[in-house]
Write a structure and sequence with these properties.
It is an enzyme of class 3 (hydrolase). This protein is an alpha+beta fold. The chain is 29% helix and 25% strand.
């Protein structure tokens, strides 16, 4: 679970003092510069610090969760941006609604909420559904007017065998289901996809352990087709792992271990980020999940990536882009924490695809050259085609190329297409292009040409938007605002990069 530190107190003076303690200066006495007034907190609200990002010029972006009368506020997260001198310049909120409810006494008992949640999980196709713990009181503020609610976590299996941890929000007054979202999110040795590569290992007694102490201690485990627990540690007598074939258990482990290492290096070398939570500590990987399981997933609860072996247990989902995709879900959870449903869920998925593509290019591995295709190596479709296409998302038969008002109703793996398309346009521009032997032809909604600024600049803009300007409820229009702010911060408002961000969003009909 994420570690947080509570800033307690309900008075203006106490909140101001708490902000001072995290680096805010008192500033002028004018109301507009008072921390309480600037943030717009009510007397019953408290802040829970989640972390800060400091720009090279000293600008600080401090991220917080909120509570109301001691009750967690879902959708109440915010980012406070302050200038190098300490003055608050702006506050980015997940909701502009005033956090206030008539009473914090629920009209219905918790068992009623649990019953509603279990019904919702079963309706969503969950198998073996059961409440993980008793429902907890929350304030639901992510959409509409804030309301006292229950949050029930239901565990089980999704329709494809992926573990499920479904959060169901129920009105504490009338028992109506308000919302639901999933938190188990799905995207030298010789690996099946990456060829002969170096992998982190350590001597352990008379054998070697597949553990990378140079990158936070990342370790890969063998579930041996089970679905519970951490699994068995991989060991080897001569420190030569895998044979490139799926019938050897170590082969998938090599790909998973390599993918984790390259992703760690990409984030560190590109953004200075040390691990998923930026704390120097690694997650871990589990391979050989279940039988014939055609998926991979990230789980915050175990802080781990898990990979199935695909159809017939012959196509493990351990390709480099899949590994980077899953690890990036962890980065998103540790930063903007984009809710995994609706448009925010699409942006969550797109963030993982965007960074996965960047990791592939960064790796410069001849066995898996960089491209703007997702899952092209794992052959989920059985015909050699990719899972997703960033230049023209509709090539997968499900994802739209452009934003429309009903986009948020789609599965998040399809609503992500619009942001993937935006990133391709921002990086490479519209029209026909050949990169590393792959042909692309990217359209725009209005037919106007878009000129790209290069993948590296585009990635820096997206990462800064994710870590400093997006919140849990950011939608596509909010993503446009966030990336424009990021481009302005990095390159200036009159820069080519800023103008390209605006043009690329317009190209996918986000205006």
């Amino acid at each position: 679970m994420r570690q947080t530190s509570r800033i307690t107190g309900i008075s203006t003076a106490t909140v101001a003092a708490a902000l001072l303690a995290t680096g805010f200066s008192a500033g002028p006495a004018a109301a507009k510069d008072d921390p309480w007034t600037s943030i717009g907190l009510g007397s019953k609200e408290q802040l829970v610090a989640r972390g800060t990002v400091t720009d090279p010029d000293g600008t600080v972006h401090a991220r917080y969760e909120r509570t109301y009368d001691g009750i967690p506020v879902l959708g109440g997260d915010l980012v406070v941006h302050r200038a190098p001198g300490g003055k608050i310049e702006e506050v980015t909120k997940a909701t502009d609604a005033q956090i206030k409810v008539p009473t914090t006494r629920p009209g219905l008992a918790a068992p009623s909420a649990e019953k509603t949640a279990l019904a919702a999980a079963r309706a969503a196709g969950a198998k073996d559904a059961s409440a993980a713990r008793a429902p907890r009181k929350v304030i639901w503020a992510a959409s509409g007017k804030p309301v006292l609610a229950y949050e029930t976590v239901v565990e089980g299996l999704q329709h494809d065998g992926t573990p499920s941890r479904l959060h169901v929000i129920t009105d504490a007054g009338n028992g109506k289901k308000l919302h639901q979202f999933e938190t188990v999110v799905t995207g030298t040795g010789t690996g099946q996809y990456n060829g002969k590569v170096k992998v982190g290992s350590v001597k352990s007694g008379k054998s070697f352990l597949l553990k990378d102490n140079a990158r936070g201690g990342h370790q890969t485990y063998n579930l041996q087709h089970g679905e519970e627990g951490k699994g068995k540690a991989f060991t080897d007598a001569d420190d030569v792992w895998g044979n490139g074939k799926p019938d050897m258990a170590q082969t998938a482990a090599v790909d998973a271990q390599y993918g984790a290492a390259v992703t760690w290096d990409y984030y560190k070398d590109t953004f200075g980020r040390k691990g998923i939570r930026n704390d120097g500590k690694a997650a871990y990987s589990r391979v050989h999940f279940g039988k014939g399981y055609v998926n991979a997933f990230w789980d915050d609860e175990c802080f781990c990536m898990t990979y199935g072996d695909g159809q017939g247990d012959k196509k493990p989902l351990t390709s480099l882009d899949v590994a980077a995709h899953e690890m990036t879900h962890g980065v998103t959870s540790a930063t903007a924490n984009l809710q995994y449903n609706g448009e925010s869920g699409g942006l969550n998925e797109a963030t993982s695809d965007i960074m996965a593509t960047n990791v592939e290019f960064y790796a410069k591995n001849a066995a898996d050259p960089g491209d703007y295709l997702i899952g092209e190596k794992i052959d989920i479709n059985g015909n050699g085609t990719a899972l997703r296409y960033m230049d023209k998302p509709s090539k997968d038969g499900e994802s739209p190329d452009f934003w429309n008002p009903k986009l948020g109703e789609l599965d998040v793996h399809y609503s992500s297409g619009v942001a993937n398309h935006f990133f391709y346009l921002l990086s490479e521009g519209s029209g026909k292009k050949v990169i590393n032997g792959v042909k692309y032809d990217s359209p725009t909604q209005d037919g106007k040409a878009v000129k790209g600024i290069g993948r590296e600049a585009a990635a820096k803009i997206w990462y800064k938007a994710l870590t400093t300007y997006m919140t849990s409820t950011t939608d596509y229009k909010g993503a446009r605002v966030a990336t424009l702010k990021a481009a302005q911060s990095l390159y200036g408002k009159n820069s080519t990069q800023y103008k390209a961000v605006a043009a690329a969003w317009t190209g996918v009909n986000v205006k």
